[in-house]
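> Could you send the Serine aminopeptidase S33 domain-containing protein prediction when you get a chance?

Sure thing. Input:
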Amino acid sequence: MDSSRNRVIPVAVYYPAVLPASAATGGQPPKLKLAVLSHGYGVKNTEYSFVARHLVAHGYYVASLQQDLPTDAPIPQGGDVHQTRYPYWKRGVENIAFAIRALRRRTLVLDGQPVLLLGHSYGGDIAMLFAQEHPALAQRVISFDNCRVPLPRTRQPRIFSLRSSDQAADPGVVPTSVEQAEFGMTIIKLAATPHNKMCDAASARQKQEMNQWVSRFLETE
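Output:
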């Protein structure tokens, strides 16, 4: 509960069942990195377990936020969506910022480093806006096919995006090949994964391909 906004933020968390002790930490379990995941519009925060569990294997404590509540007004479908949807994206940014603070207060196994952000579609737009407004809080940002908010042209945080086989982003959202090279960004086109399948609805093969690309991004300096 964010009492300052009187808003409940449901969170599904994923973490290792057992934290191994480490000699480097004096026999104590090592601190976990925090990853914050935002769902696509109309998809629940619990419908990304395939990537959440994959991130746990990479040493992350994953918090998947439910950005929209049944009492919220639907996101606008008409007009200039970059203007009409901004308050909704901004609310999502505030949800993420609050969740990071609250989780670190309550979860002693988390480190204090900048976080990994992930988001699908609408949630990817929220993640990219967060990266623009709070770059010091994000270490890496992964978009699963966001289509509205431009990917920040920056080297910090590191930016990665998986693009679907069937939807095109708005002009200027995806960087050009020249910009990708300049800022060290990675953009991958998935040949056989449509936009609406970039969640637990994907096939086993599609999930495996997405997770493999996520691993490559996380393992690069």
